[in-house]
Amino acid sequence: MNLKEKTAEILKRLKREYPEPKTALNFSEPFQLLVATVLSAQATDVLVNRVTEGLFKKYKTVKDYADAQLDKLQKDVSSVNFYKTKAKNIQAAARIVVEEFNSKVPGTMEELTRLPGVARKTANIILSNAFGINEGIAVDTHVKRLSNRLGLTKSEDPVKIEQDLTVLTPKEEWGNISHLLIFHGRQICRAKKPLHSECVLYDICPSGNI
Ligand code: SF4
């Protein structure tokens, strides 16, 4: 089995384990996903969903974030870490979306990454989950760890990992692969004490003895 075939086998098995690969963040329109994704940096999806439940009722449009008093917006997200910077970025992004994009979140990597707080990973999440566009692969800490353990990359650099994964997988799977590796990383292939004996990839994984 070459590396491309092995990656296809990994995807096949993970899809069987996790039949609905999608983000665990709750949202109903693109700017809500942007807000949730910005808040989720180094915070759990559960906590972010708890915070956004009230936030999305209070701030209904992009303009509501743009016009908010920053200290009030910060207070509304204060249970999430780095909330001051995150709220500041959300408001700055909202103002650009209102002023330059007619209050609609743009649908390209180039435009999205111009927004404060939106780097390539966040942009990939928004493009894939809100617009159904597979422009690249969102590489978070789980994707980074599992790609290395499974031998799909030798790099620690998210940009290089994304490049390696895009070469190994068909474009239509780019959104899925991120979710599948994240689910598997959370449930089985944890950072500490990975559950090798419960892993469906054990026989094709070069790291089953770490
Ligand atoms: S065998 Fe172990 S290291 Fe490899 S993917 Fe499964 S849990 Fe992770």
Quick overview:
With 210 residues, the protein is mainly α. The protein has eleven helices and no strands.
Element-level helix/strand string? HHHHHHHHHHH
* Mean model confidence by pLDDT: 96
Spatial shape: elongated
Sheet of most strands:
none
Instruction: Fill in the CATH topology of the largest domain.
Output: Endonuclease III, domain 1
| Terminal-residue CA separation | 22 Å
Give the SSE map:
Layout: H1 3-17, H2 30-39, H3 45-58, H4 62-67, H5 70-76, H6 83-100, H7 109-112, H8 120-131, H9 141-149, H10 158-168, H11 174-187
Helix pairs in contact: 2-3, 2-6, 2-8, 5-6, 9-11
Summarize the structure in words:
The protein has helices at 3-17, 30-39, 45-58, 62-67, 70-76, 83-100, 109-112, 120-131, 141-149, 158-168, 174-187. It is an all-alpha fold and 210 residues long. It folds into two domains: 3-21 and 137-204, Helix-hairpin-Helix base-excision DNA repair enzymes (C-terminal) (Endonuclease Iii, domain 2); 30-131, Hypothetical protein, domain 2 (Endonuclease III, domain 1), CATH 1.10.340. α2 crosses α3, α2 runs antiparallel to α6 and α9 (141-149) crosses α11. It is elongated. Bound molecules: iron/sulfur cluster. Residues 149-150, 188-189, 194-196, 199, 201-202, 205, 207-208, 210 line the site of iron/sulfur cluster.
Features:
single chain; Endonuclease Iii, domain 2; binds iron/sulfur cluster; Endonuclease III, domain 1; mainly alpha; 210 residues
